[in-house]
Design goal:
It is a single chain. This protein is α+β, with helices and mostly antiparallel strands. It has 2 domains: 12-138, D-amino Acid Aminotransferase, Chain A, domain 1, CATH 3.30.470; 147-297, Alpha-Beta Barrel (D-amino Acid Aminotransferase, Chain A, domain 2), CATH 3.20.10.10. Helix content is 26%, strand content 27%. The chain contains 8 helices and 16 strands. Strands 7, 8, 9, 10, 11, 12, 13, 14 and 15 form a 9-stranded mixed β-sheet that branches. Strands 2-1-6-5-3-4-16 form a 7-stranded antiparallel β-sheet. The longest helix is centred in the N-terminal third of the chain and has 14 residues, at 65-78. The radius of gyration is 20 Å and the shape is globular. The structure holds pyridoxal-5'-phosphate. Pyridoxal-5'-phosphate is lined by residues 54, 174, 200, 203-205, 222-223, 225-228, 261-263.
């Protein structure tokens, strides 16, 4: 697989400056940011018919890359998209997309689309899936401080619809919930499942410490987050195994600590839920320790082959 190393030496963004010269991978080519386009006949555009991953690089290493790519392939399989590349090829694309953009720290979105088809839902008209990867600098999505949540009236689907474990690009439930958070002046929204149990926040999983025990929702109406898995492992190592169970909003209101996990957001302490202050309102002791250990772990990733002296 030729990835145009000569045409796109790593670090060009350094010399050209700014974000204007980001390069986007589309089906075997790197294109300049503004030339990177997809067809209006693409099912991903017409129907949100695609799957994706959000992946982070820390200090020149891509965190949890195999886990993200495994989930990408599972998502695609689940909705019947044939990914034209192997996991090894996808790995190279992700690493190369960070390298070409000279990003040692940053976020990457890799998308696999159903492909160009015709108007009409039938996926048989889309013969070839496309693979698109774009990397960019990306500060933590919810900022660095404890966040205030509001419960959204939008419910997260169950596994009898599009399973929340499938990372499809259609995020309409989450976007509507985020609109409600914005309208109410809160930082983010909590989505419940159709039975009224806590599902997740708009792009993060939820952890709750109540009566000395940590819990997180069973992954039936939430994404099975890779950061969620890491947080569960950290808490286990701290001697506090996490129980996966159904959680009610009440249990969050009276919790000692609540935090959120996600690739884009990191580990995010929760200050309040629906106006009820969590603990003292400041990040709890255990949440701070989880954050500390998480930061240490982010140093262990798949190295990006970056020339010496490159940033970010
Ligand atoms: C809806 C949703 N839930 C949870 C998460 C957290 O998942 P991860 O830790 O794999 O990034 C994300 C992030 O992608 C998400 O979009």
């Amino acid at each position: 697989m030729e990835l145009f190393r000569d045409r796109f030496p790593a670090g060009r963004r350094d010399t050209l400056g700014g974000l204007d010269d980001l390069y986007v991978y589309i089906d075997g080519e790197f294109l300049c940011r503004d030339e990177a386009c997809i067809s209006v006949w693409e099912h991903a555009f017409m129907y949100g018919d695609s799957v994706f991953e959000g992946i982070r690089a820390y200090g020149g290493k891509v965190f949890l890359l195999p886990e993200h790519l495994e989930r990408l392939l599972e998502s695609a399989k689940s909705i019947g998209i044939q990914v034209p590349l192997s996991i090894e090829e996808l790995t190279r694309i992700v690493l190369e997309t960070f390298r070409i953009n000279a990003l040692q720290e940053g976020h990457q979105r890799i998308t696999v689309t159903r492909g160009v088809g015709s108007v009409g839902l039938d996926p048989r008209n889309s013969k070839h899936a496309s693979v698109i990867a774009m990397a960019y600098p990306f500060p933590p999505t919810l900022g660095e401080r404890a966040v205030r949540l509001v419960t959204s009236s939008v419910r997260r689907k169950g596994c009898d619809s599009v399973d929340a474990k499938v990372k499809v690009s259609n995020y309409m439930e989450n976007i509507l919930a985020k609109l409600q958070a914005n309208l109410t002046g809160m930082d983010d929204a909590l989505l419940l499942d159709r039975n009224g149990f806590v599902a997740e926040a708009t792009a993060t999983n939820v952890f709750v410490l109540r009566k000395g025990k940590w819990s997180t929702p069973i992954p039936v109406a939430c994404l099975e987050g890779v950061t969620r898995h890491v947080a569960m492992e950290i808490l286990k190592q701290m001697g506090s195994p996490v129980e996966e169970r159904s959680l009610t909003p009440h249990e969050l209101y009276v919790a000692q600590e609540v935090f959120l996990t996600g690739t884009g957001a990191g580990i995010v302490p929760v200050e309040s839920v629906d106006g009820r202050r969590i603990g003292e309102g400041a990040p709890g002791e255990m949440t701070r320790e989880v954050t500390r250990r998480f930061k240490l772990l982010t140093a262990e990733g798949t190295p990006i082959e970056m020339p010496a002296g490159k940033r970010d």
